[in-house]
Write a structure and sequence with these properties.
Elements lengths: L2 H24 L6 H27 L20 H9 L6 H16 L8 E3 L5 E11 L2 E12 L9 H5 L2 E3 L6 E6 L20 E6 L2 E10 L8 H23 L15 H6 L9 H13 L7 E5 L1 H8 L2 E2 L6 E2 L5 E2 L2 E5 L14 E7 L3 E14 L8 E14 L3 E2 L5 E2 L5 E6 L2
Helix pairs in contact: 1-2
Length: 426
């Protein structure tokens, strides 16, 4: 055992004894024979550990350094796989796991939320410098090949197609957040002494409130015995992908907003005011661009988003006479605007739920907020028959368009001013 592990074991035994004494005190009784035996056994082990700790501490003295202490090895960095195994095996959490959990818990508390999971991961992504990887040959000295700089958890925005499109992303939020929206200022000509009309614009605001997003990830027990940076990074990426997919599918989806989830961009064209599913043409997409342009939301973050089916449809449409025209979608662009693809965009939207989503808009007007970090519960039972462990991941998000307005028909559409959605087919 390392010096740190010996000290951790001693601290855990002292804590176990404290709990036994406190239990008997709280129940106003003497300790049972079994409890007394446990205390004596723990004290004996603590005595042995103290001798080993003393021996290990003496080893850190460099005799050539005239009594100068050599720095003990640094504790191992946080590992999610190790933290999961600690929970599965009912082992005490390592110092790294405790530190990360305390940091994340404080972040949740600041956001006004309560996190009760087995493992908590903060949203801020402080990098940890890992051990240098060394390589060398028999005739050459070892040389540094690489230094692995790995964040605790990569930023979620790296996994969102909305980020590529230029959406607004806010993290570390606290409580409900009101974001002002300004309708703009008008100007007019007037004579030297004539009264002019009021040129002030109109202020309004949107409110983001934390809504619980729950993602489920099943991992094999065989995977959990791996101990490599690659396996650790794969697990982090899978968690991020699970959360990102759910967030994207909700924002692009067909459901109306509720108190527990944001609304979807496909709601208005599928449920609110159903839009006929049609084969797109240049006129179709130009009409979408015109609708956004006339709403005065022109900006640098104008782009299309669709799914893989939609991309295939657009790539097969010839813009112009057969044999002479170009395809509507070429080089991931359409009409000069980028086209981003995610299968989170529904393939069952529009009238009859039979079309693929094609949405165009100013993605800077899509605001995504996150409160706190990631609350992970380790469930060793639900998929135990498959040799797997289930991770239940809770995080808190909300999303709205910064220039939303009331939709005709059934309720409020948070995206209607800045985005134009169609349902397309081949």
């Amino acid at each position: 055992m390392t010096l740190l592990e010996l000290k951790d074991k001693k601290a855990n035994l002292l804590e176990a004894n404290d709990k036994l004494f406190k239990k008997a005190e709280d129940e106003s009784r003497s300790m049972t024979d079994e409890e007394s035996a446990s205390v004596r056994s723990n004290l004996a082990t603590i005595g042995e550990l103290e001798l080993k700790i003393s021996t290990e501490e003496r080893k850190t003295i460099d005799p050539k350094a005239e009594g100068k202490k050599v720095e003990p090895p640094k504790p191992a960095p946080f590992s999610l796989i190790r933290a999961i195994n600690e929970r599965l095996e009912n082992r005490p959490a390592s110092e790294a796991t405790k530190s990360i959990k305390e940091l994340a818990a404080a972040q949740f508390r600041t956001a006004g939320l309560s996190a009760k999971g087995d493992i908590l991961i903060p949203a801020e992504m402080t990098a940890e410098k890992r051990t240098e990887i060394l390589a060398g040959t028999a005739t050459h000295g070892a040389e540094v090949v690489a230094t692995d700089i790995m964040p605790i958890l990569p930023p979620l925005v790296d996994e969102l197609v909305f980020t590529k499109a230029g959406a607004t992303y806010l993290n570390n939020l606290v409580g409900n957040v009101q974001i002002p929206s300004y309708a703009g200022t008008t100007a007019d000509w007037g004579t030297e002494v004539a009264a002019i009309t009021d040129s002030s614009g109109t202020f309004s605001d949107i409110t983001l409130t934390p809504k619980r997003l729950c993602a489920v990830l099943d991992i094999s027990k065989l995977f959990l015995i791996q101990d490599s940076a690659g396996a650790e990074q794969l697990l982090y990426n899978n968690i991020q992908n699970a959360v990102a997919r759910k967030l994207e599918s909700t924002i692009l989806g067909k459901t109306t907003k509720t108190t527990s989830a944001p609304g979807g961009m496909s709601f208005a064209i599928t449920t609110g005011v159903p839009v006929a599913v049609a084969t797109p043409t240049r006129a179709t997409v130009v009409a979408q661009e015109t609708a956004i342009g006339t709403a005065n939301v022109q900006a640098k973050n104008l782009a299309y988003i669709t799914n893989s089916t939609g991309r295939g449809i657009l790539k097969n449409i010839i813009d112009g006479p057969s044999g002479v025209g170009r395809f509507l979608l070429e080089n991931n662009q359409m009409n000069g605007y980028p086209v981003y693809v995610t299968n989170a965009a529904p393939a069952d939207c529009g009238a009859g739920s039979s079309g693929s989503l094609l949405v165009f808009g100013n993605w800077a007007d899509l605001c995504i907020g996150q409160w706190g970090g990631y609350d992970i519960t380790v469930d060793p039972y639900t998929v135990a028959n498959k040799g797997e462990v289930r991770l239940v991941i809770n995080a808190y998000f909300d999303a709205k368009g910064l220039r939303g307005s009331a939709a005709s028909g059934s309720g409020y559409d948070d995206y209607i001013t800045s985005f134009s959605a169609k349902a397309i087919k081949a």
